[in-house]
Design brief:
By secondary structure, the protein is mainly alpha-helical. The chain has helices at 3-22, 28-52, 58-80, 87-108, 115-138, 149-169, 171-174, 184-214; strands at 178-179, 182-183. It has one domain. Helix 1 (3-22) runs parallel beside helix 8 (184-214), helix 5 runs antiparallel to helix 6 (149-169) and helix 6 (149-169) runs antiparallel to helix 8 (184-214). The model has no long low-confidence stretch (mean pLDDT 91).
Length: 215
């Protein structure tokens, strides 16, 4: 099984769902998720093509890191704003990610992947996710979690970035573990991608359903 195909197919599926569910959404940040997923699909397919021609493709993922950090930070700011003044913590997190990015680029150049930046970004997004759930638990209002788009968007994000952070931290122990001639981290990241885009797709459906009910 080619796990790269699995990831790309899942991303394209999520992008199509976002177009159907979010294209006319009243919230600009939710609508922007379609643009972010389009950038994600283009990046993944381009990276796969470049790799297929035996050329280094890490530079394209360095470009994608900027969009990944930007769009996800905007969404977390949008979701946390329901409970707290989220501008300052999200701005601090974004500045920290940007600082790591600039330091890594000056340290080893643009054509080596900024893995420290990716790890710092993942930790920050995990923190935002836990903060959101903490605020959600403290909320006295009744929320039907089965149909709550914010809950499922954060759930997918938490699964992905918590899992990827764990893989990065324990990579030295996992790099030699093979399953069906594939490194186990390769399989884990594919599974995490399916979880991420599966939860996001369901959150978009919930968003469309709630919007339809309101109208």
């Amino acid at each position: 099984m080619n796990f790269e195909y699995t990831t790309i197919i899942t991303e394209v599926f999520c992008f199509v769902i976002s177009l159907y569910c979010l294209l006319k959404d009243t919230n600009l940040i939710w609508r922007c998720m379609s643009l972010f997923l389009l950038i994600t699909c283009i990046t993944e397919i381009t990276g796969w093509i470049i790799k297929g021609h035996h050329h280094p493709n890490q530079w394209i993922y360095n470009i994608y890191l900027i969009f990944e950090a930007g769009f996800n930070s905007l969404m977390f700011g949008n979701l946390l704003q329901k409970y707290i003044r989220a501008t300052l913590p999200v701005l601090i997190g974004s500045c920290l990610i940007l600082l790591c990015y600039v330091i890594e680029v000056f340290s080893h150049g643009f054509f080596i992947f900024n893995d420290i930046t990716a790890t710092v970004m993942s930790v920050i997004f995990v923190f935002y996710s836990f903060l959101y759930y903490y605020l959600l638990i403290r909320d006295d209002r009744y929320i039907d979690l089965k149909h709550d788009e914010s809950f499922w968007w954060v759930a997918g994000t938490l699964f992905f970035y918590f899992g990827s952070t764990a893989c990065n931290l324990f990579y030295v122990y996992l790099k030699d573990v093979l399953v069906n001639q594939h490194n186990i981290t390769y399989i884990i990241f594919a599974a995490l991608s399916v979880l991420l885009y599966g939860c996001w797709s369901y959150s978009f459906i919930c968003r469309k359903w709630l919007t339809t009910l309101k109208t």
